[in-house]
Amino acid sequence: MRIAVVGTGYVGLVSGTCFAEFGTNVVCIDKDESKIGRLLKGEIPIYEPGLEALVEKQVDAGRLEFTTDLGAAVKKADAVFIAVGTPSRRFTRDADLRYVYEAAKEIAASLEGYTVIVNKSTVPVGTAREVYDIIKTARPEADFDVCSNPEFLREGAAINDFMRPDRVVIGVESQRAADVMKALYRPLYINETPMVVTSPETAEIIKYASNAFLATKISFINEIANLCEKVDGDVQVVARAMGLDGRIGAKFLHAGPGYGGSCFPKDTMALAQIGRKHNAPQRIVEEVVEINADRQQQMAQKVIEACGGSVEGKKIGVLGVSFKPNTDDVRDAPSLVVIPILQEYGATVTAHDPAAMEEAARHLEGVTWTDDPYEVAQDADAVVILTEWNEYRQLSLAHLGEKMKTKCLIDLRNIYKVAEMEDKGFHYISVGRREVKPAADLKAVQEA
Known about the structure:
By secondary structure, the chain is an alpha/beta fold.
């Protein structure tokens, strides 16, 4: 089979490359000539572990191509994937579908023979029908179907998520289209990957509902962390015990500075907007959005309080600015809220991140960037861990402390143990955990 992928952003490039790994002939298309030029030279425009090697492998095998010529690619394709951006509108916060609609119009002009048009972008309910209407209006004689095939790729683990997904969701209205999609995903049958074949509208809801539920788990455990701090509880123990319940599960029950990235913030706001539009308010999701916005503000205040109630004239070191490890993505990252607040209150900030400094520098002014994580501690009044990169899990605490003016570490990801940090002489602040050593007998029970 042969497919075309419109858009070489995160979803389009990863999906196209992985389909090529399955043995499908893939052409990835983008209007951005510079981006296509870079890809033709083997330069990957996004940071994703393992992607560069996989792209090189598939290009060498002749299964993966890049072009700006949409028409030529569409004419030869059995399926055309729309994987363009759907950013949030500035004021209404619903999804901006202009790029999806433009892609549909351009695809319509080049269709030859039966083709399945696949919405891979995250889009509101009803978009598949809108894409169908756009193409049908432009080309009444065209032989095509429209499918909703949402992606569930985690940045930093996208290749594994595509190759070994929990499920594949296929939203179609004809058996013919379902057969094409099943053929594309046939390699996953070996792993007995569940295939959920449903209507386009249901598929569109599944994507938003899934991300909103995961965001809800994050906001929930952050609220519990606040309670733990008030009553001397330990949110990590609470989360572990909750996660052992098979009905709940352990994933996404990690207290911290709130969620960010390209999906959760955008998708929760879009789902809330969809609910209001259809007179079915999503009140839980609306509250989750507010909790997360407040959370990032609260974390900035937590840093200020740890510094004695004021950061005026103080130097703060920050470890991690990406919204999560293994990505250079800073979209809606907690760092974009926390750092400006600290600066507003008079702090100077030095920061390090293994991958995201160049991207973050476009959004953050007045930050001193360093390639050495220990340099953020030089003469620092406090160091803040904002992202749980592996590089920060085994820092030499002695070396870190020697560089600091004041041994104050605010760990907003709970990657160190309270007792260990206090033993090493740090004023250690974490999230939702006891800030003093447990009694000897309790400590022994916990370790047992």
